[in-house]
Design a protein that fits this description.
alpha/beta, seven-stranded parallel sheet
Length: 263
């Protein structure tokens, strides 16, 4: 068994999904076409660019070599918001979206947060006609970014979709590498779907490694409609960087697990 969370392993995942007959969609495509997708086999491919934006470009190039387009959500912090990388990924045909955390950055003040949101949305729209957004989980923040939409409506800003509001998870199975594992829902505060997670567990739809997912595809045990979310900072072929990420994330998972229990 080869190392998980490498670019090589990510390529294997794309191969497996392709061989399994899945159509690849950006989240924008899903929002525009979902009324006609009821019987289709597809995967919405989403990437949250939290850190190490360079890793996202490496992933984007791999997808481009497969003739696949995916959605990339960029934060405004410097570890994510690297203009040349945003331009390069958009130039490969991928969707660019805003990975918003305005409530955290504005200390929970909705009036300031919405003004900040509008400015950042305008910024990203200089480089891509942004139609979708996605909340950044920010586990160390007491503010849930989605709280902004209790007072405002993102549709008023030309946004057609936000995954946590506009995906029907009663039909679409959610896989995320949160915690550097595919069954990290137990150590995640916000990047999970609690309403349906218990049912998925009951059905045996729990996968720890990428190889577990590939085996499920081969055995036709993976649901036919998926959203797959990755955090590209976790995926690298460089052993030193890979090992550091593994050790660091293992420590974070212990802390996050305690936070989940106390939440």
């Amino acid at each position: 068994m080869s190392r998980d969370f490498t670019l090589k392993k990510y390529s294997e995942l794309l191969h497996g999904l392709e061989d399994g007959g899945y159509r690849f969609l950006t989240f924008e495509q899903y929002c525009l076409e979902k009324e006609s997708l009821d019987k289709a086999r597809y995967v919405i491919l989403r990437h949250d660019v939290d850190l190490k934006a360079e890793n996202s470009l490496a992933i984007a190039k791999i997808e481009h070599s497969f003739d696949i387009n995916a959605s990339y959500y960029f934060r405004v912090v410097k570890q994510s918001n690297k203009l040349e990388i945003i331009k390069a990924i958009a130039g490969l045909g991928h969707e660019i979206g805003y990975h918003y955390e305005d409530m955290t950055l504005c200390k929970g003040i909705p009036e300031k947060a919405i003004e900040h949101f509008k400015r950042q949305l305008d910024y990203f729209r200089r480089y891509y006609p942004v139609k979708t957004i996605c909340m950044h989980g920010a586990p160390r923040s007491k503010y849930d970014g989605r709280g902004l939409w209790k007072r405002y409506d993102y549709h008023d800003f030309g946004i057609i979709g936000e995954p946590y509001f506009d995906v029907d998870f009663s039909k679409i199975f959610y896989l995320t590498d949160t915690g550097r594992r595919w069954d990290g829902f137990n150590v995640s505060l916000r990047d999970k779907v609690p309403i349906y997670q218990d049912e998925w567990i009951y059905q045996g739809l729990v996968y720890h490694s990428t190889d577990d997912i590939l085996d499920a595809i081969k055995q036709d045990r993976l649901p036919k409609q998926l959203m797959v979310t990755t955090h590209p900072q976790r995926w690298t072929d460089l052993f030193g960087e890979w090992l550091k990420e593994r050790i660091t994330q293992s420590a974070k998972n212990i802390v996050k697990g305690l936070m989940v229990k106390l939440h």
